[in-house]
Amino acid sequence: MRVIIGGGGRVGSGLASALRSEDKDVVLVDNDAMAVKNAQGMDILVLHGDITQRQKFIEAGIEFTEVYVAATNSDERNILSCALAKHVHAEQTKGKGKLMTVCRVRDPIFVEEHKSGKLAKWAGVDHVVHPVDGAISRLISGLRSSSLTEVIPFEADAYIVELDVRPEAGGVVHRTLRDSGAKVEGGMPLVVGLKRDGMPGKVPTADDQILPNDRVAIATAGEASFNRILRIFGHEAIDFPDRPKVAIFGAGLIGVRLAKAWLDQNGTVTIVEKNLNKANELAGSDIGNRSGIEIIHGDHLDKDLLSEIEIGSHDIAISALDDDHASIAAALLASDMGVERTGLIMYDADLVSVVRRMGITFSVDRKRVAIDTILSRIHSELPGPYAVLSSVPDVIGICLTITSKVKFAGKTLVDAGLPEWCKVAFIQRKNIHDDWETMRPSSSKTLLEDDRLTIFLPPDRLQDIQKRFKV
Fold first, then answer.
1. Coil, strand or helix: which one is 66?
2. Cβ atoms within 10 A of the Cβ of 329, count?
3. Which of 7, 112, 325, 371 fits a 20 to 30 Å CA distance from 348?
4. What is the pTM of this model?
């Protein structure tokens, strides 16, 4: 498969790296000389040029391409380039080929245009990626703990949580995963990724040992299991309130979406917005009229105002401002004034790890979410999410369906004969209400037709596992 990526920024280059690890044929196009120079270390074709020029698509080999991804910071350029890519592809293949286009956008107007089906008609955009909702989902789950470095939802109440192993984790450190299973009360959580400094990440086997400061990725069902995982790996677990009191700084797109998400989860919300027009607009909206929300017009850095709204009585403070540095300052002030949990959704990926060292509880990299979402669209043959583990970047997680073509339908997991280089994290099956339910895999579990398996594996093995599932 050849994939052309328009835009060599963090999303474009991160996407190129992920696809190259799968042995995909990747072409990256950018009109910024520095972005081109930075990308030349990757084993891909890098072209300096404009993605709104017909000749650049011809030079990139559009006639041999199956997917075009527009990932610049401009919605308009992304949409225009998708339309052009479709036209040039049809022209070069004389209408015999098929090109899938994936477009990264920021403006929710274009999201609605896509949902209505109109964007595909007038711009040739097959898939739109707008990672805000995915980032919010990760943030809300991650704020349930003060020690998780990443939380990746995998649908149907299934999660991957990533964290460091502390020396205090006596039941697991300096033991193999097999030996730890006998020492940990209730059984060892399912470790699907393991990373040690100076070594590549891997899908661990039962004979792999866990050492202090290792980074692990754990498959688990339900947010209620997070605290148990934290304790097993040496972290302090703090109970999460049934009805959290949440302060949100900023009434922009992210702030409003956050408010709705917390209200839907039975929380109470206080929004502080500096701009009077934005505050009034939210107050007159459907969300502003819901019970459990209070909208305050004022400066989020005004200590007197924060004292007046009793910021220290809030369980969580989330800064949802357009500027990362302003968001960090607001979150740190809230923390200084007594808020136990603080959260951010970041634009600058380099700041995500930095803010944890500052004492901010949990932050989400929007661009990391965008990359995972785009990968899911590219792998449209997969029925569920696709994710690259952030702490164990040499491991990916995918969903595959057991169809009638698969030989091991009706067999137990141990009899399915799946290779050692992969690990099944979840078995998902529809219940009598036609809803997906998540089950922990066990060697004696019988696999049924139409079950979905979430599997973790090295990215260069993706095609191998897809062949086994007849994808």
1. coil
2. 16
3. 112
4. 0.89
